[in-house]
């Protein structure tokens, strides 16, 4: 298995089936749909490669202002493909091949950065998760790399790697305790138990619970609102949230001031008040 493949690599003739991940642009919104419904969208190498391409497209295309990550077939993501892992244990690879950064041998992988799962990479534009059904293990891991999270009322979450003797290498052992209360994060990580959408909302892992089957509609509604806001401001606010995390307030406010000043220097910062005075919707250029 090469360093670009993952457990669950393509298992059937690619030409005779849909790709493991679908990417669709609707105006300023890019929708990324994990597409292995027969395996509850368990991750595959093909899926992760398409995800990486989609993230690059989000960051590089100024026309794309917001992204949505969702799953096909009434599920979000069941994490790594356990059947593929059984056939080819990833750990056997970790002892072979120089790591990509030359620091040890993890099978050619730098396990501190898994861009497809948004570990060691965050998008420069807002990413909204639209969850139906199961978001388990790798599914809840990638969720933590999203910014706004919507789930159908029957959705369930969990970081179940420990249940199978595995480790949440998608970043949860670091990130979950930074996003929800410590004792609940420890509980979820150490028990591997699944939690329902209502509990996920109660603990702040997700922000919205909607009727089953409407998570994508709600995510599109939120995405439209953000896409109509000033893109320069939106991206600067997102970057400030990210770059100031964990810093002392005084150091964080230096980032805040630098990025905020750049927004006020933008043409959009003139268009907004002008539109208000002229009683019309702003036409932001993104510059
Ligand atoms: C560490 C990172 C993440 C690891 C993991 O995610 S471990 C996997 C944990 N997953 C689970 O516990 C979920 C298991 N599934 C369930 O609990 C249930 O199926 C469900 C709740 C999800 C749904 O229940 P349901 O009743 O609706 O449906 P079912 O009937 O149960 O299932 C239907 C159907 O789907 C199949 N199915 C479901 N889940 C899976 C699954 N996870 N795998 C396979 N198949 C699944 C089920 O069998 C049924 O099928 P059927 O035929 O009908 O019986 C890793 C994430 C990415 C890794 C990196 C990738 C790149 C790399 C490559 C390398 O070589 C090694 C290094 C690495 C960087 C690698 C490192 C580790 C990761 C970061």
TrEMBL record:
Originating species: Rhodococcus pyridinivorans
Composition-biased stretches (Basic and acidic residues): 92-104
InterPro entries: ClpP/crotonase-like_dom_sf, Enoyl-CoA_hydra/iso, Enoyl-CoA_hydra_C
Entry's transmembrane regions: none
Family the UniProt entry places it in: Belongs to the enoyl-CoA hydratase/isomerase family.
PANTHER family: (7AS)-7A-METHYL-1,5-DIOXO-2,3,5,6,7,7A-HEXAHYDRO-1H-INDENE-CARBOXYL-COA HYDROLASE, ENOYL-COA HYDRATASE-RELATED
Quaternary structure note: Homotrimer; substrate probably binds in elongated tunnels between the subunits.
Pathway: Steroid metabolism; cholesterol degradation
Classification via CDD domains: crotonase-like
An example Gene Ontology biological process: cholesterol metabolic process
Molecular function in Gene Ontology: lyase activity
Catalysed reaction equations from the record: (22E)-3-oxochola-4,22-dien-24-oyl-CoA + H2O = (22R)-hydroxy-3-oxo-chol-4-ene-24-oyl-CoA
Name of the protein: Enoyl-CoA hydratase EchA19
Domain of life (superkingdom): Bacteria
Assigned keywords, A-Z: Cholesterol metabolism, Lipid metabolism, Lyase, Steroid metabolism, Sterol metabolism
Region called Disordered, residue ranges: 88-108
Pfam families the record matches: ECH_1
